Amino acid sequence: xxxxxxxxxxxxxxxxxxxxxxxxxxxxxxxxxxxxxxxxxxxxxxxxxxxxxxxxxxxxxxxxxxxxxxxxxxxxxxxxxxxxxxxxxxxxxxxxxxxxxxxxxxxxxxxxxxxxxxxxxxxxxxxxxxxxxxxxxxxxxxxxxxxxxxxxxxxxxxxxxxxxxxxxxxxxxxxxxxxxxxxxxxxxxxxxxxxxxxxxxxxxxxxxxxxxxxxxxxxxxxxxxxxxxxxxxxxxxxxxxxxxxxxxxxxxxxxxxxxxxxxxxxxxxxxxxxxxxxxxxxxxxxxxxxxxxxxxxxxxxxxxxxxxxxxxxxxxxxxxxxxxxxxxxxxxxxxxxxxxxxxxxxxxxxxxxxxxxxxxxxxxxxxxxxxxxxxxxxxxxxxxxxxxxxxxxxxxxxxxxxxxxxxxxxxxxxxxxxxxxxxxxxxxxxxxxxxxxxxxxxxxxxxxxxxxxxxxxxxxxxxxxxxxxxxxxxxxxxxxxxxxxxxxxxxxxxxxxxxxxxxxxx
Length: 506
Prior knowledge:
alpha/beta; single chain; 23 strands; 13 helices
């Protein structure tokens, strides 16, 4: 992941609190942005749920843990997500690669089978990140990255053996699961080779050598298997990567890269612009999208295999209600630019900085240690209920959508930067060309669907006991919706800072 930079059924969560609700009125109020018009007959565009099709997670071996699998099930239940991506399938702790006394490769698929059987049992497919280097295949086994589990980032001592390792893994997958299944997976070469996750020198040309060997190995198994890269941080290399593949006849089926809301403009755009984290991710997505469109293969799919509001441990960001408005607004801005965006991560069963020392430390997951949902878990649950058609609206604080059955689902939010206290915001909405007479409203904010206030009230214990964990899970439950009648198709909704609301018309 990213700290290396620094050295759906229509269900809502089972977890969350019935507290006081924001002010809701059937009468329109004057707001700074004026009345938000939502017309049921306005032009609609396809709105695939690109933000919830894939999630990232901690390294491969963690997927064998019961806590990981429970969290996977919980997030699958609220989003219906299809793919998961993790690092280090070639790490020695997985036990895939060894050499015999004559230094000939020996493959052991015991843990490999347990890992992928476990995913498929929950109807989740992998994006197989081909990383990192097994110790006995590394040119320099001492060349490791700073993560707690010390992944080896060295180039291989034998490039043909690297290709043979990739081929053996892919062939095993096809033999075990069948080509019709494995052809629906994704294979991605390495992780963030432009940072300290890749020890080749110079890093970009040697990464292309790594990629070329892996891509050709994948296609030797079966041409239907999908391979892509460069899996870079900071939205880097994509234009040159595409050019390299096309000019050298190297297979590529999709492009992948990463960015975070607190990345820097010099690193991502080569400028000194001051871009807030509320805009940064989609600016980078647009940059890469445009590079693909301008390339010789303009229809290459773009899969954003890591993103979040922060690559650091910032409790006021990833643990906090701020994530709901940030996520909704990011979805609004990135719509139409990418096939999938993989939120980093679905769970805090995660050890890049070592064993988790407390539940709310700014971890990247939707669920904190101990199976405690964060506000962002409920945010994903709300946003899952948006329709698959997007209606035009005259506001940057609203996403209006229509479901297949004609139900109108609207996300509305009050977004401030996490360091800003913010103020309440009243949104005045008018629904035109609809026969609706009432609305159901769900809210996630500091008082609804977040365990943080309950955690603070119990003294912020680093290791909550079982009763405290139960209380925190209860505090994190989604509040029941409020039913509210409309007057002449009008609704006024006051949202607290960092609040996300889902409005369903009926």
